[in-house]
Automatic annotation (TrEMBL):
It is an enzyme of class 2 (transferase). Keywords: Kinase, Nucleotide-binding, Transferase. It comes from Candidozyma haemuli. This is uridine/cytidine kinase. Residues 1-26 are annotated as: Disordered. Gene3D superfamilies: 3.40.50.2020, P-loop containing nucleotide triphosphate hydrolases. Pathway: Pyrimidine metabolism; UMP biosynthesis via salvage pathway; UMP from uridine: step 1/1. It comes from the Eukaryota. The keyword Mitochondrion does not apply. Residues 67-211 form the Phosphoribulokinase/uridine kinase domain. One of its GO terms (molecular function) is ATP binding. CDD domains: UMPK (cd02023). GO terms for biological process: UMP salvage.
Amino acid sequence: MSAVSSATPQGSSDHPTPSSLHSKSPGVSTYIPPWTEPYIIGVAGFSGSGKTSIAQKVISELNQPWTREQAFNNNFDFDEPGSIDLDLVVETIKSLKQGKKTEIPVYSFTHHNRSDKTITIYGANVIIMEGIYALYDKRLLDLMDIKIFVDTDLDVCLARRLTRDILYRGRDLAGALKQWEVFVKPNAVSSVTPTMHNADIVIPRGLENTTAIELMIQHIQKRLALKSTLHLRRLKALGLGPNFDLQSIQNLKILPYNNHTAGIYSILFNAQTDRTDFIFYFDRIANLLIEVAIEQLTAYEEIDVKCCKGYSYKGLKQTEDIVAVSIIRSGDCFMNSIKKTFPSIPIGKLLIQSDSLTGEPQLHTESLPKAKTGDRFFLFDAQIISGAAAIMAIQVLIDHTVKQENIVLICSLSTEIGIRRIFNVFPQVTVVVGQISKMEVAELGWGWSRPLRTWRMTLVPKHHSRATWSRRAKK
């Protein structure tokens, strides 16, 4: 009569211990974003047991506003473990576990083969791995935070499978029954049933067992809340070190304070300034900040410029390409100025906002243009308060193989504690700022980014020793 048959889920302590912040050298800390510690859920069960329905239920309960759904209704049930390239599965999960940008092949059920399309997964807080043999391989079990087995009577599974195959996959009744009797049912008994012993939670009757599903979701939500709290605590700790002299940081470039800049900021800070004047004078400050950022570029080559009447001019040509990345929405206020300075510059976007409930910074979306190794990235944000969004944005660029020394963060206003946090983690990044405020920690509001990005991945058969995955994301 028990709603849930369970063992103690891996890492079920109320005090999670994975490190998000550790020292890599004296005076330098390492920030590890939440997507490098994703919560991995494995869902296994017989063909037609209701794995997909339960995975969708988990997705709908975990996701918050701003989370977007990108569903691929690819759900293929294979019959025996050899039909999965488990080596590729393990390699992919490890890559996601490390927070890397990962390409997942898409399987075509029309041609029964991998298609040319791939799905890019990056920045997932929660990964749901769904498949008949999701709990079969020990290497996968070691990577999972919680393991679920959906236990449904085989007669019910047969009825669901026949309905699905005949209505949605164009198969005839005789062929579907033959496949069930010859392949599916024997392998379910011999290979799938034993994996039930690897599960932390066994859910009888699938989606009908609402009590079991609610208890499971409550447990997952509790674990994610603890991880969120720990992440916030570590972010705050970045700025609690000893005060430092701003003048001693060579990579910090502060806009010179003179009558010109003081006059512009006086207009910008004035609550009575109308919208047109505010935009005009902010563009002037933005132009000055971009000029300071350009001065940090050092890769030039000498060229001879042919002038009129046969004269020549010995000049310089910039050899580094520049990519602009805006932390939207506030970073977009620099776009007018950067486009006037570099009309054809490629522009990327990062949406980082604070969770309305926890205050945790979260990456909602990333769209970065293709760039070459060695390109310089100008990262724009209007203001830096806690520094959390800027730290996360820099980490996203680093995850996309951009070196610290090639990143220039440009902002109009910043707090000293925000600058301190950034340089504690990324000492080689260059920061160009208009003005710095000495706000104390107690004055800062810690509302900082993206709701949980949840990915559901369905194991499907391999073709010529290749495996394919399909993904469902709730956004």
